[in-house]
């Protein structure tokens, strides 16, 4: 049985393509990620890791190459279908939580489910379950301003997983946290990913966190280089 959730083949991406000032960001990137596998993506700032995550998550398109998500060849899909796949199968986490300030922690997790057609009761049950997994059941009614930075980011993790995606893409998810809080938040992330048997690609500068994942890949000069597994 093929458990590959995401497959990128020969991905190339340039900005200002065809112009004298064109910048070639990705040069033939290949990457496959299986269900239950966490891959650390490490790269210097400006190397193109965010671009790669956006292509993998259907927020951007490659100039050339193939993207297969949950068995579907994205190049063959309409924009409407791409949007539906992104909502259903992809969870995003960013360095800053971007929670809606006027809503509680639970409501921030319920809202994306409602937008995806989940009934109110089911959405609330799912939110409560996720908050329990990350140790925040007692903070479910608090708004973001009433939560610490680490708590806010844990809520953001739960929101990213609200619709039970198949893959989680995270761009420096602990980059704005102190080392102790970063470890706690990463532990919560690991719990969520393992519990749901997701595929995950986590971009990070933190090599200690990268070493805790299943595999490390490094983006250098537009190409992915496999690093010896931790």
From TrEMBL:
InterPro entries: AAA+_ATPase (IPR003593), ABC_transporter-like_ATP-bd (IPR003439), ABC_transporter-like_CS (IPR017871), ABC_transpr_LolD-like (IPR015854), MacB-like_ATP-bd (IPR017911), P-loop_NTPase (IPR027417). CDD domains: ABC_MJ0796_LolCDE_FtsE. It comes from the Bacteria. Residues 6-229 form the ABC transporter domain. Pfam families: ABC_tran. GO terms for biological process: lipoprotein localization to outer membrane; protein localization to outer membrane. One of its GO terms (cellular component) is membrane protein complex. Gene3D superfamilies: P-loop containing nucleotide triphosphate hydrolases (3.40.50.300). GO terms for molecular function: ATP binding; ATP hydrolysis activity; transmembrane transporter activity. Keywords: ATP-binding, Cell inner membrane, Cell membrane, Lipoprotein, Membrane, Nucleotide-binding, Transport. Belongs to the ABC transporter superfamily. Macrolide exporter (TC 3.A.1.122) family. This is Lipoprotein-releasing system ATP-binding protein.
């Amino acid at each position: 049985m093929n458990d590959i959730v995401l497959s990128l083949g020969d991905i190339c991406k340039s900005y200002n393509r065809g112009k004298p000032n064109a910048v070639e960001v990705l040069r033939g990137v290949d990457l496959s990620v299986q269900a239950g596998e966490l891959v650390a993506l490490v790269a210097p700032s400006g190397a193109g890791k965010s671009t790669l995550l956006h292509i993998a998550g259907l927020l951007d398109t490659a100039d050339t190459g193939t993207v297969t998500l949950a068995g579907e060849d994205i190049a063959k899909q309409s924009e409407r279908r791409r949007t539906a796949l992104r909502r259903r199968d992809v969870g995003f986490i960013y360095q800053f939580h971007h929670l809606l300030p006027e809503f509680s922690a639970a409501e921030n997790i319920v809202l994306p489910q409602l937008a995806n057609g989940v009934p109110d009761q089911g959405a609330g049950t799912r939110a409560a379950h996720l908050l329990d997994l990350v140790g925040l059941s007692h903070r479910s009614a608090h708004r973001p301003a009433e939560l610490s930075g680490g708590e806010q980011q844990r809520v953001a993790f739960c929101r990213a997983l609200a619709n039970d995606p198949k893959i989680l893409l995270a761009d420096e998810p602990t980059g704005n946290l102190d080392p102790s809080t970063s470890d706690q938040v990463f532990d919560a992330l690991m719990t969520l990913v393992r519990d749901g048997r997701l595929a995950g690609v986590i971009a990070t500068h933190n090599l200690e966190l990268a070493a805790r994942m299943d595999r490390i890949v490094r983006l250098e000069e537009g190409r992915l280089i496999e690093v010896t597994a931790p």
